[in-house]
Amino acid sequence: MAKLFLIAAAVSGFLAIAIGAFGAHALKESLSPAAIEIYKTAVQYQMFNTSALLIIGLLALKFPHNRSLFWSGLLMIGGILLFCGSLYGLSISGIRWLGIITPIGGVLMLISWILLIFAARKFTDSVKPFSN
Fold first, then answer.
1. Domain ranges of the chain
2. pLDDT tens digits along 66-110
3. What pTM was estimated for this model as a whole?
4. Cβ atoms within 10 A of the Cβ of 109, count?
5. How far apart are CA 24 and CA 51, in angstroms?
6. Which of 60, 61, 114, 126 is deepest in the core (most CB within 10 A)?
């Protein structure tokens, strides 16, 4: 589980930087100001939630059997794909129905954060997350 989340976070982080740079340079002239704002929102949410996914992966190294942590990571990946992916598609293509997918991804991210709270409640005070 930890390996999946760490690799997914690394790939997503790489893509967020690459997609953000592409938008800042290549798309600046071809998209409307509203589309640029949608695109920027997608990049921001991808990076914020990728950072959380990285933390989930690191915690999963120490707590590999925590089911809430497992589901938090999976839903975070799904949320990033659906929320950010639909916003990228909407901003670049203008296909309005992609906006219907966005809230589904947002809900997945919200549930992921709630599950992270539940996962953290299961950590014991005597266990330090990054000690051997």
1. 2-122
2. 999 999 999 999 999 999 999 999 999 989 999 999 999 999 999
3. 0.90
4. 23
5. 21
6. 60
